[in-house]
Amino acid sequence: MNAGNQEFKLDAAEAIGQIAVALPGATGIFRRLKLDYCCGGQISLQQAAADKGLDVQTILAELATLQRSDATPQFASAAELIDHILLRFHEVHRAQLPELIAMAKRVEAVHRDHPETPAGLAALLVEIEGELLEHMQKEEQVLFPMLKSGGNPFVVHPIGMMRSEHVEHGANLDKLAALTHDMTPPADACTTWRALYAGLRQLADDLVSHIHLENNVLFPQFEAAATGLGCGPGGCACSGA
């Protein structure tokens, strides 16, 4: 979905429901502003804002902050890469999951009788959120400060734990895909349902990119230094990866 974010051009003339689906995270802004993107999603953002007496340019500026790029910038140091991970992924995951949980609860409640309703999705997302928050806290409080200080011979142990938890995160993404037909909404899905699945696709894309940067770019250089073993881009023998 990240690639879609790059291609999607924000336009006040676009239907608010279309924006909600094309730009994951927009639903949270619309709900806060009490803009009906679901049942009333066929009208333009310009009209929806005017009806509420809101400044559409201010809304567009806030929506623009949700647009993301898949491009991976180059970093002069591990510390710069860590700061990028914190800003681009840790903060983003913390913002993504509460909105996804709220939408999943709504879809499960409103469409409880639909044969394709993802029963249990909200509960799974709550579980994912709890595990991810705990994981990121370990990185922020223990591993990343250790890496920023240059690492040490024992750094392979917390890195190994993070790699193991990354595997668990991947298993959770498999559960999400199985529960949501690979995050594909039914043909008659409402705007909220379609926006939910678009947001789930973005969460999955972001989490995979997040894990890739840590497993294949950040961790190997410290594992190599700590063990004296050569580490390739796919992982290190010392980590069991």
Keywords:
mainly alpha, SP0561-like, disordered C terminus
Structure description:
One of its GO terms (molecular function) is metal ion binding. This is Iron-sulfur cluster repair protein YtfE. Its main location: cytoplasm. The chain contains 9 helices and no strands. It is mainly α and 241 residues long. The N terminus and C terminus are likely disordered. It is 66% helix and 0% strand. The chain folds into 2 domains: 63 residues, SP0561-like (Orthogonal Bundle); 162 residues.
**Average of the residue pLDDT scores:** 88
Instruction: Decide which structural class fits the backbone.
Output: mainly alpha
Number of helices: 9
Helix and strand pattern:
HHHHHHHHH
Show the helix and strand layout:
Layout: H1 2-7, H2 16-22, H3 26-32, H4 45-52, H5 56-64, H6 78-110, H7 121-148, H8 156-179, H9 191-227
Main location: cytoplasm
Organism: Chitinilyticum piscinae
Keywords: Cytoplasm, Iron, Metal-binding
Question: Can you summarize this structure?
Answer:
This protein is an all-alpha fold and 241 residues long. It has nine helices and no strands. The chain has two domains: 63 residues, SP0561-like, CATH 1.10.3910; 162 residues.
